[in-house]
Task: structure prediction
Amino acid sequence: MSIMHKRYQEERLAIIDLGTMAIRLNVYEGYVSVYQEKSFTGIGSTLSEKGHLSPKGKAIVWQKLKEYKKTLSLLEVSYIAILATEAFRSSEDTSDFINKLKHLDGMPLIVLSGEKEAYFLSKGVLAAFPKFSGLVCDCGGGSIEIINMKKGKVGELRSFPYGVMRMSNILLHMQNPRQYVRKMLENDSWISSVKKDQTLYITGGTWRTLAQVFMLYKEYPLMWVNNYSPDLQEFLSYMRKIPSINFDKILLSRIQKQSRLLPTASILFESFLDMLKPSKIIFCAYGLREGYLRELLKKREFKDSPLVSCTRYEARENDRSTISELPKKLYNFSLPENMLLAAYFLAVMKNEAPDKYKGDHAFLRVINLPLVGCTHKELVFLSYAVGLSFGEVHLVGKKAELIKFFLDENDKKQARKLSEVIKP
Result:
């Protein structure tokens, strides 16, 4: 198997997320996922009806883990962890399957408690939004976690067995599923006692997909959900329409694959928000895996933020990738230091486009990177400045609308100034 040479980080860390609906493998160098796989298993699809793991799902998981073991050997990974969540916590036949998985030497399985899962989720959001205060709410296939955060510190947290796959089987044939969920939550004293009017950070695959559906509806020019903060009342109003939407007409594969679960996801979303009454909502691309990764990197005294890590990786074939401090020539810009470092690294990323199109190519490359630690406006600014450092940016169509939507004339002028300074 061929994968890029090791130039950025010598150590590769592998995290396998064994969820209720799917199994995911990510291999990281720093915060960069240099290799990833995902397969739908449905291992928790029988939990609500039968109380045990799906036999078909177990067979898929067993086969995928054997394949992953071979892959990880070829990738020369130094650390592997399998994180199992709600399906493994609550099924009646977990122990037998865990004993079977122990035969896969060198691939330790960690069955996370609900509280531990919530803890790592909060750390994932913290990696994307350092020192934030507010609530974190994650919707998985088998459970929903809520965490209270204050200035980057983990406070009270709770895990609820109300995940989207589990609840879809329960709500499927109900005449009034919203009323059922609302009553269930109203009877929980902990949720009722959570402080209202806080910022709510939302993670979890199906809820992120709801954000993408709304983005399409609003014709929002950027489809990157991290740091997306829609108008709360307008978003909730649209959630009530989700069960009646024909998703066959939506082309995004992520939405197509999860369309069956989106009606349930929207009901859960609306119900939880009605109880938590946040002042605003912000979607986050990071979650459990990134939170667990953050703690691994912390133990290894890794210093880069996710934004710096991901952009330093793009410069890995250039000597710039080795710097640890902001170059003095960038001191005159009022942008955050992480943003300036990111621009400095990206200006030397690989760009094999013809000279005429290098600027456009660089802009498109950066705008499609999974960058966290910057707003959508900052991401477009960064893409434009880096594009200009390679040449002129002559985009047309929807990509040109990104610049028009997010940047005013002063922003574009500042981006051009920055481009001149970051050029190699």
